[in-house]
Write a structure and sequence with these properties.
heterodimer; A: Rossmann fold; B: alpha/beta; Rossmann fold; 9-stranded mixed sheet; 29% helix
């Protein structure tokens, strides 16, 4: 079986999700036999050839062109697809990141592969590929089948451990010449760092949509201060403008591993869970007894934040 | 600018119930609302119309069994500022993003538009595929996770949200398809009286068969099973009256927080 992973360069380095895709690729290889290839495109991907010489990875293909310095789906998909065609793989694995969400459908289209996004696991089942997907915010799973022996899947950051053990890998360097498509990438903007770093705290009090009101946000902040911790949040709080982006926990924002993580009114979307599930102790308060956050919590408190939070603060002050 | 906004009715789900076929969700007791990121796509379209003129048309594909909720969703879109609403109806068939992209492509290629907007991800099936597949089918450029759109000469200057707070700026011509990330704007809440008045306005109903024959044939991602994952729940569950559990929760916090 030929397995291809499409890697990505993010903020000047190989993204963590690239190693996770390799882990799944290597797992499929061990189950079915075959070869594992990683394709990495960029302006100067050769600089990563040493760290991408990894046990289990048979071939590393580095595609370079100045036009690949900043990502866009048309140039990248054209460069990567041309290379994948040569390999004629059975399965292609792309991380479901901001780049993967954008890029993978274009690659699938150019190669005529069906694409299954947001997969938790995948196996070959006689008729074709069978993928398990996490849907309805983690409350349901579905099994999706595509006919035929070819598939492109995207996997969610944080679902698999990284494959990183160094070894010899066959490295192939290619200069490609890309003609720019209709999209013109201009620049990458980095965030201005003017806030605390939530990854440095032992205790995080984290608020989600269920926090309900700004008054409760203040109580949560008081709780965080009392515990020598910091206030963090899930995405909806940032979307509402209640806290800055620097406080957002999630695999697409900040991945945190505090000693204690207290989740207040956070239901537990995958992105959030994969950004905090490795915390030492997780205490979650949510009024929905079916909230997915409880699945990874050490202590799950089924209660309305509005009622419990003020009482809790009084208790802790005693 | 002529803008088409693709919106999806998604259910609010607490405890899920699976239908007897083991493949579909029992929706009989569920209430459907506009998908979260679609509210941002709609708001962005209305903001652009208010600034640059033009027209906003909302288009949805949905099962006729949830017709009432879909109507409500379109009326609310009218109350917010959408000009037209189109409801492509189907029944007794499962449609994946491939089938929906085929239907929309055949339907939209006859319409004139500058931009198609939709939410970056749905809260139900979370494929994040429809916009991209539709773009391929209509041969339009697309990009995803858009957090800002500004016209710049004859192109759009668009910002995409990346990980860890980084953003990418790019230029994309029109017509094109953009999938919208939450937080790009602050969606408005229309006053009740506007929603009530909107209910007198017509919704264009289009049976899916009038666009394509046997839409099920375009499904590539066949759902063979839908299930509730085995729950292990939290290691320790605490329930009860707030007054009763507050001291317990305080004890737990004190026992684990480093001093």
């Amino acid at each position: 079986m030929e397995i291809v992973c499409v890697g990505e360069i993010f903020n000047g380095d190989v993204s963590g999700s690239t190693y996770e895709a390799l882990y799944l690729g290597n797992k499929i290889k061990m189950e079915n036999g075959g070869k594992l290839t990683l394709i990495l495109a960029g302006k100067d991907p050769e600089q990563f050839s040493k760290k991408l010489s990894i046990k289990g990875l048979d071939n590393l293909i580095l595609l370079s062109d100045p036009s690949l310095e900043i990502y866009d789906n048309e140039s990248y998909s054209s460069a990567v697809s041309n290379e994948i065609k040569e390999i004629s793989p059975d399965v292609i694995i792309v991380p479901y990141t901001s780049q993967g969400m954008d890029l993978a459908p274009s690659i699938a289209h150019l190669l005529g592969f069906p694409i299954i996004t947001y997969c938790e696991s995948i196996k070959f089942s006689g008729n074709g590929w069978l993928a398990t997907r996490v849907i309805y915010g983690g409350k349901l799973r579905e099994e999706v089948e595509v006919e035929g022996n070819k598939v492109l899947i995207t996997i969610r950051p944080g679902d698999f451990p990284p494959l990183r053990e160094e070894a010899q890998t066959n490295i192939i360097k290619k200069n490609v010449s890309i003609s720019r498509g209709r999209i013109k990438p201009i620049e990458i903007i980095k965030p201005a760092l003017e806030d605390i770093d939530i990854t440095k705290f032992d205790v995080l009090v984290s608020v989600g949509r269920g926090i309900g009101s700004k008054e409760n946000l203040e109580i949560a902040e008081e709780l965080a201060k009392m515990l020598n911790g910091a206030l963090s949040c899930s995405r909806p709080i940032v979307d509402m403008g209640w806290l800055p982006k620097t406080r957002q926990v999630g695999s697409s924002a900040k991945t945190v591993k505090p000693k204690v993580y207290i989740a207040l009114g956070i239901s537990g979307a995958t992105n959030h869970i994969n950004g905090m599930k490795n915390s030492n102790t997780i205490i979650s308060i949510n009024k929905d007894p079916f909230a997915p956050i409880f699945e990874i919590s050490h202590y799950g408190i089924v209660a309305d934040i509005n009622d419990l939070l003020p009482l809790l603060l009084e208790e802790l002050k005693k | 600018m002529e803008i088409i906004v693709l919106i999806k009715a998604t259910p609010v789900l607490e405890e899920a119930k699976i239908s007897e076929d083991g493949k579909s969700l029992d929706t009989s007791e569920l209430k459907f609302f506009i998908n979260e990121t679609d509210t941002y796509a709609l708001e962005e379209a209305i903001l652009k119309k208010e600034k640059y003129g033009g027209k906003v048309t909302v288009v949805t594909i949905a099962d006729s069994s949830i017709e009432n909720d879909v109507n409500e969703m379109i009326w609310e879109s009218y109350a917010k500022g959408a000009d037209d609403g189109i409801f492509i109806e189907y029944s007794n068939v499962y449609l994946d993003p491939y089938a929906k992209a085929k239907i929309l492509s055949d339907f939209l290629k006859k319409l004139k538009f500058d931009l198609i907007l939709l939410g970056a991800q749905s809260t139900d099936t979370s494929y994040s595929l429809l916009g991209q597949l539709l773009a391929k089918s209509l041969d339009l450029p697309y990009t995803t996770l858009v957090s800002s759109i500004e016209p710049s000469g004859n192109v759009l200057r668009v910002v995409r949200e990346l990980e860890e707070g980084l953003q990418e700026v790019l230029e994309i011509p029109t017509p094109s398809i953009l999938t919208i990330q939450s937080g790009i704007n602050t969606p408005r809440y229309p006053p009740f009286v506007k929603i009530r008045n909107a209910k007198t306005r017509p919704i264009k109903k289009v049976p899916v068969e009038s666009i394509v024959n046997d839409p099920g044939q375009y499904v590539k991602l066949k759902r063979v099973r839908l299930y509730i994952p085995p729950s292990k729940g939290a290691a320790n569950i605490i329930k009860g009256e707030p007054e009763e559990i507050a001291p317990k929760v305080a004890e737990i916090i004190k026992s684990v927080v480093p001093r």
